[in-house]
Amino acid sequence: MSDASVWVWGVSLLLALVLAPLQLGVIAKVKSFFGGRRGPSVLQWYHDLWKLLRKESVCSSTSAGLVRLAPPVGVASCLCALSLLPLGFMDSPLGFTGDIIVFLYLLGIGRLALVLGALDTGSSFEGMGASRELHFSALAEMAIVAVVVFLVMLTHDYSLGGVLNTAGTEAWRGSGTSLILIVIALLLVTLAENCRVPFDDPETHLELTMVHEAMVLDHAGPDLALIHYGAALKLWVFAAFLTTAAVPGRLFACPWTGLAVHVALVFVVSVAVGVIESAMARYRFLKVPYLLLTASAMAAMAIFLLEFGG
Amino acid sequence: MFSEILYVIFLALDLTLLSSSRLLHCIRLVALQGLLIGLMPLADAVLRSELRPSMALMAMVSIVVKAVLLPRLLSRAMRRAQVNRELEPLAGYSVSTLAALAMVALSFVMVRSLPLSEYTTHPLSVPVSLITMLTGLFLIIARRKALTQALGFLVFENGITVFGIGMTLENSFIVELGILLDVLALVFIMGIAVFHINREFAHIDTDRLNHLGDWSAQEPELKTEQDEEE
Amino acid sequence: MSLESVSLWVLALGGVVSALSMLVRRASGHGVPAFLGLWSCVSGCLIGLCGACAGLRDGDGLSSLFQLPVYVVGCCAAVHAYGYLRGHAEGREGAFWLFFNGMLASMVWVTAASGFLEFLVAWELMGAMSFALVAFEYRSKDSAGASWGYLLACQAGGALLMVMHAMEGGTGAVALAAVVVGVLGFGLKIGLPGLHTWLPEAHPAAPAPVSAVMSGAMIALGFYGVLTQVPLPSAGPGGWRLVAWLLAVCGTVVMVPAVALALAQNNLKRLLAYSSVENMGVVALGLGLGLYGHCCGETLMGVAGIAGASLHLLNHALLKGTLFLGAGSVLRATGTLELDSMGGLLRRLPQTGALFGASAVSLSGLPPFNGFIGEFLIYYAAFLGIRHGAAGSCATAGDLAFLALCVLAVLMLALTGGLAAAAYARAIGGAFLGEPRTAAAASAREVAPCMRAAMWVLSALSLTVMVSSPFLCRALMPPVLSALGLPSSASEVTQVSCLLSRVALVSGALLLVTALVCVARRCLPHGAETPVRPTWDCGYARPDARMEYTSTALVQPLMDYFAPLLRLHRRTHPAEGLFPEHGSVGLHTEDLANALLWRPLHRLTWRVADVVHRLQSGYLHLYVLVMVIALLALLAWGWLDGMSLSSRGGMVK
Asked: What is the pTM of this model?
């Protein structure tokens, strides 16, 4: 591994840490554009986070302390997952064979911590959010693993770097249709895992219809800031996963071009999320599992096509 | 690559058909399949630059019949009968999706053992046609509404046509035969549909929509509760 | 005399002496018998543990591997039992310790037996001893049915093993059938799909320390049986092929239904029991993949699968031991095992709660904990299998089928992971978090020190396994592989342990980053201040336990989604009137295996018995007639057999 690639990867990681809240701003901007409003500045989330960080936190009298533990675990798990990902089309220097499994399960621990934190407060709404989160995440996990199985079959590799970066131009030429299916499935998983429309509406004000937002009702101040920052990082993780899998990164001769393209693509995903949120209503809760199952089915279909077709 | 995408879209339509509950949506999906069936031989011919007027005519006829006429008729029947949703499928939508995946796997495995490869225009054509036929049969078996069953017949017939397209593109006779089959199917399906619809819906009042199911008027407790929750 | 047999004798004699002291000092109650039983058990286990560690270096690796959980969990469970039984044994401590020590001794004997006959005797003894323990609380309502069911399962398993032994040495189909019968026989202990139904009955009925030993160590011995006693159709790695297929398929099939049932249980110990079925499925899958990998020459896959299965076995023993002991502590503290009647116990039983919670999260297979490493290796083996299939273009139908199995296994593992997290979120959330739902839960106190100590020791060992997993893998694998008659493949073992060290590093990094974030958060201007306020319930100022989501409500959407697997039905009593006082919704589930397999079988047996019953008329001449008919039929069979033999012989000539 050359020095340049490590540098590119490191700079991408830093950029991810810094720019993650910007994605939320971009999404909000796109939505206000479609709504015919001017909308908040793209930097609004930085102001919000800064404000929250200076406030004091409140702890529920029911809690046994898990509610305070959940936000740091969430941020830490996203950070660790991010540091295993190839960023800027460069393999992570921390990656190893089989890290793809660790990556998926790292995201799992963040989720479970949030769920347990929600249950810790004893609030009925947070219980409801936790219940929905458990339901959807179990199915989303199967979908993303199906995608990973496809990528493993395509690339005959099982490190994140190998799996995502090797799916290059030849792969698009050879099995482009299945890759299209995979990209759609991944987009669905990205939306589901990040609690976006059509799975969940992050901007709803009715607790009964919340999923993720309901789980964090009792977090305040710095805890809430950490939760939001963790969510932004998670969105970055999935956007990076999606774009690295979809775009043949070995095209770029200069590694720094790759970096620029990578960051640009992550924001393309944000814009896409914003467009989807503007164009779609969110699904009924009963329908969400079907949509997640459809994502798994698409990945399975891609596997069939890869194995039997063409 | 291009025809592969067409085949995969066709496949995706099959899957979506199995997992959607709105009848109008299903009809539109079948119409889209009809459109694709019309486009498939055309696309191939254009890519090989051997487009003949007869071929274009056949495609036009096929598109008009399958993508416009039949869906129109079905959606009119739907409006007449005032059903718009398959409320109680015999197999739920998750089960249907899993069944669809099983059918896909079965078809691919079956095709591997068939010595067809030298006759087909595309490796996906035969499996896709098999899957489409199975999807049609599944719709007929696992849905209650007469209209969905009619759609099932239509999908089955689409599968046969795809098989024809995939096997011998050069011989336009087969394509003509396909169109003939279409007309036959048209008469057949509408006959069945009208028969079923007459039999099932002759006695209904329009305000008792939840009694529109074929034969079951009682609803499981579980389903209604969930519906109310929404 | 080896350490192993010393420990065996200490255990056995300790149990007998404890029972005798009971007889001698009938009136004394707790003191002497419990003391004798406990110390003989602990010392026996510690001696044995030294023996097993030595055995890993220069003895039979497989039996040492399976002895480790017996000693560790047995020792801790004994310490826990000392507190668990106090005041609840009704003067039967001597009997408890006799059977408890006897059970541990017979488990050790199972792994030490040399011939099939000795093995069978030990196996049956183990079943009998544990039956007595399952029936120990015989006055409770569920105990009778559960213990008889367990006894039946033990007997059926033993009978199948005898059939297997009778078929040994056959050729062709008979040899294959012997393998199948053997796997089924041991599968009754492991809880392979359809054969697991005794588990969720017996575990809640038994005292918690006994459930801990049974779930952590005993059911795993089924794998020992499969690996050592099942006659392989052919020598060398190829002989494992059928066993590998059976195990992998059973593991894949059993995981999701088992974990779905686990999450549907309201009884904490039933939940844990179903989770044991699921985890044994994971182990079976790992073993199957590993053995298959050795059959088809993918040594890395073989080593990863077997290492994953071994590590998961150990982790499951430690974690499930902690969890069952924790469930016992909760039972003693609150008097109930129903999750919906607990709540808020983490504030009242902080140590028990924290240890239970950590073990539960660990057992759902999430990274910074040790439950992840076994699953990680099994995933890895399955991915290697997928690559093997995808790269080899699937020449034969068998290859294709194996590729499909691997893909399915990975998907099922993923789904299982999500569902296990949900099940344990239910257990933790229902029992330990939120507000207490009953007065008993509200007034619960932390349990006796010895009960906590047992859980602490097991959890500390879990942590040790997490940290030392690469070394553990390097120490365990060569003896285990050589005991299985497989090539030692040192480089692959090194590769796998390198992987484990990377996983351990990532886990460490996760903990470190979490700690850093926590510290950074405290350094904020108002970071250290945390005013305590009531839970914000969207404007409602006085939320109480009745408004909380119950643990059943938490998983209700998932239960609805898996309704066909659970045979879910609702009993609704709607609230009526303007000021309703009562109204309830109950979700009821049923084990698919019971509904589809055992109940019809039971009905059939009754019907046959009804018919046969007519023969039992009390007339002697009828009995003699039946005997004569049977004799004549046998004679005719022999005669026909001879005829066919001679005619075949004639054709050969």
From this structure: 0.90
